Amino acid sequence: MNDFYKSSDSFVCWHCEKNLLDNRYVIQDNFAICLNCFEEKYSNHCFQCNEIIGIEMEGSRFEDKTWHRKCFNCSICKLSLINKKFAYRNENLYCRHCFIDEFAERCYRCNRSLEPGEKCAQHDKQLYHKSCFVCNACQEPLVNGKFRCRDHYFICRSCQMRLMAIYCIKCHKAIENDGVVYHNHPFHSECFVCTNCTNPLGNQRYVEYNNDAYCSKCSSSLFIKS
């Protein structure tokens, strides 16, 4: 670090030959240099305003760059970054808030930034705040994959059953998976049974008689005369 000295002998600045008697100067490489020449030739320039950072000025340094303290501000909100967390990207300084807002990934639903390290939900390659990943109908959190999504409209299984489900005409319960439609009436696969033996007809062939369904075995014994 360079030090200031008071001259006691008759001598001049190495660069401009200004008399240094009773003037302040700096010793640089064993040469006496007046303050003006020292600032002009050796002082750092502020990365923000490109003005000299004077020998008596306080500056801030990051990596190989220096700033006046008054210039060491967030490039977006202009908040002073002295003694604060900051980020440096693309030759710009950012406070923590502006950096997150500018560069962090965003929630697909609310478009607000996702905080670094924040736990989030992901669906169809899109990220969501936990608080945003909820059923559009009841606003309850979506958990364990028990929901349906169409065009980013989410509905939990409970609301789906309550609002959109088709109900079996036989047991009057919601049909959650594939069912059977017979004469425009929905059935669970297990509820669509032979009228005679009550065995589920499932995907097997059946015979209709007087609007009732019969399995092949029962239809043969009941309706085909030998």
Automatic annotation (TrEMBL):
InterPro entries in the cross-refs: Znf_LIM
Top-level division of the source organism's lineage: Eukaryota
MF GO annotations: metal ion binding; transcription coregulator activity
Signal sequence, renumbered to the chain: none
Residues of the LIM zinc-binding domain: 44-105, 166-225
Family matches, as Pfam families: LIM
Keyword Nuclease appears in the UniProt entry: no
One cellular component term from this protein's GO annotations in UniProt: nucleus
Keywords from the UniProt entry: LIM domain, Metal-binding, Repeat, Zinc
Protein name per Swiss-Prot or TrEMBL: LIM zinc-binding domain-containing protein
Organism: Rotaria socialis
Lineage: Eukaryota, Metazoa, Spiralia, Gnathifera, Rotifera
